[in-house]
Amino acid sequence: MELGSILQFLENKTILVTGATGYLAKIFVEKILRVQPNVKKFYLLLRAADAKSGTERLRDEVIGKDLFRVLREKHGAGLHSFISEKVTPVPGDISHEDLGVKDSSLKDEMWREIDVMLNFAATTNFDERYDVALGINTLGALHVLNFAKKCVKIKMLVHVSTGKARLFGWPNTYVFTKAMGEMLLVNFKDSLPLVIIRPTMVASTYKEPFPGWIEGVRTIDSLIVGYGKGRVTCFISGPRSTLDVIPADMVVNAIIVAMVARAKQHSEIIYHLGSSFRNPVNFSNLHDFSFRYFSEHPWINKEGESVKVGKGIVLTSMPKFYTYMAIRFLLPLKALQLFNTLLFKKYQDLYTVLDRRVKLVMRLVDLYKPYVFFEGIFDDKNSEKLQIASRKTCPETNVFNFDPTSIDWEDYMMNAHIPGLVKMALHFQCDGGCVQDNAHNLTQTIYSSSKGERRAIERRYTS
Questions:
Q1: Which segments within 161-225 are labelled E, that is strand?
Q2: Do 192 and 145 touch, CB atoms closer than 8 A?
Q3: Contact at 8 Å (CB) between 369 and 318?
Q4: Which residues contact 413 (CB under 8 A, 6 or more apart)?
Q5: CA 177 to chain centroid
Q6: How far is CA 361 from the centre of its chain?
Q7: pLDDT in tens for each of the 463 residues of the chain?
Q8: Cα(115)–Cα(148) distance, rounded to whole angstroms?
Q9: What three-state secondary structure class fits 31?
Q10: Phi and psi of 11, rounded to 5°?
Q11: Is the distance from CB of 246 to CB of 275 less than 8 angstroms?
Q12: Which run of H or of E encompasses 218?
């Protein structure tokens, strides 16, 4: 399979990106603007009421991010004019027909000009309401496909999905609705060239535009932050569970190379992107890296004191976790309930808060249990074949590396990912990774989520 020049393929292309304020979408846009400034135009679809608010979101949530600092250094004072020429924000919503684009002249222009469409838009909450998840992850994918079919110059649609194992079922609304979105695309694509990208757990950037850039506290990241703050003292993982992680810039590089391959009529349309098959890292490695990093670089708390971390307890099964919770938290909570009753509800507020937090911990662990005890390996042979073809036939192979075997996990975690995560958490004064501490230290939320997701779960399950 001859791929040819990737940069030449990108030259003079008009590209529509949905979910443009999302993590991967921003990295994709930055990459192309940096390595191929002769791309013709980006249409960036983002949720906004009108063009003015769309421009503000583009400025604040995309171009204004530290991710674009290399591009800012490259263009200097000319960055604004460069972005104005190359990037057009489009107010819209993929949960609506025609992507919710109301400006008819802009819509006609897009249908005339677009060469490639990439769908990054998704709701990634594991516990999302079905109507919301279906509207974005499933029907939204169909709306994107229908929009692409109206583009007269369209060369392909790239859909960013997620690693799932259908054999074992779908453990949450996120992967279930994403799987159904894939099914709709494959069934109704007709002659439209389609590429489906399935990354596993996406982590911070490996090298580009610089190591360790990350946005948001994700599953394993909340564990790392909580551990560094001294709030997590136990870990849950299966003894044979693999932590299937892939850096974000490698995902973006693979997407770009896959676009070129599909343009050359390559028959493969589904690419799994992960590390578990060819360069696995497991939870015990993460535990070790976290302990070493925070021992050498302690977290400084609000009082200006260094937080000393211990090795922590590793719980290798759910029965062990339930026993730990019962002894450490549930029994004392029952005692507090009895004490509160005897004293005529004197400690009712404290009991309510602690009871809610225990329930939250149990719910979050239940949500993430399928991942921390998952022992499957994702077969990435299509991605490996693409990597081999790229090395043989592309002159810019090093610019678009996505080979997981090239990752030194110790160096990456110790010198890029964890430092980047700490920097991000400190910048945002991140308390989203862990529920606040309390007198009984019931805030050991082993695997928590973003603050918004946590509050949604609290409202739903701990009323």
A1: 194-199, 201-203
A2: yes
A3: yes
A4: 285, 286, 289, 293
A5: 16
A6: 22
A7: 788 999 999 999 999 999 999 999 999 999 999 999 999 999 999 999 999 999 999 999 999 999 999 999 999 999 999 999 999 999 999 999 999 999 999 999 999 999 999 999 998 888 889 999 999 999 999 999 999 999 999 999 999 998 785 555 777 888 899 999 999 999 999 999 999 999 999 999 999 999 999 998 776 788 888 889 988 888 888 877 888 999 999 999 999 999 999 888 766 789 999 999 999 998 888 989 999 999 999 999 888 899 999 988 888 999 999 999 999 999 999 999 998 999 989 989 999 999 998 888 888 788 778 878 877 788 899 999 999 999 999 999 899 999 999 999 999 999 999 999 999 888 765 443 333 333 223 323 322 333 444 344 334 333 3
A8: 9
A9: helix
A10: -60, 135
A11: yes
A12: none
Please give the model's pTM, rounded to 2 decimal places.
Answer: 0.88
User: Do 94 and 143 touch, CB atoms closer than 8 A?
Assistant: yes
HSE (side-chain half, CA atoms, 13 Å) at 440: 19
| Contacts of the segment 100-103: beta carbons below 8 A, 24+ positions apart | 101/45, 103/51
The amino acid at residue 88 is T
Structure tokens at 300: 């400084």
Tokens 């443009």 correspond to: 20
Using CA atoms, how far residue 356 sits from 101, 302, 351, 450, in Å, is: 42, 25, 8, 17
The burial class, CB within 10 Å (0-12 / 13-18 / 19+), for 141 is buried
SS3 41: strand
- Whether 133 contacts 173, CB under 8 Å: yes
Total number of residues shown for the chain: 463
**Residue 332, SS3 per DSSP:** helix
DSSP assignment, residue 298? P
Say how far apart CA 323 and CA 194 lie, in whole Å.
49
Q: Exposed (0-12), middle (13-18) or buried (19+): which is 205, by Cβ within 10 Å? A: buried
- β pairing state of 41-46 and 14-18: parallel
Specify which residues 89 forms β-bridges with: 44
Residue 463 to residue 460: CA distance in whole angstroms: 7
**Cα Rg for the chain, rounded, in angstroms?**
23
User: Residue 310: CB partners within 8 Å, gap ≥ 6?
Assistant: 233
Comparing CA positions, the residue from 25, 147, 129, 137 lying closest to residue 92 is 147
Pair of tokens at residue 260? 């070129």
Pick from 61, 17, 67: nearest CA to 39: 17
Q: Round to whole Å and give the CA distance between 317 and 167.
A: 22
The amino acid that residue 4 corresponds to is: G
Q: Which helix (H) or strand (E) holds 43?
A: strand 41-46
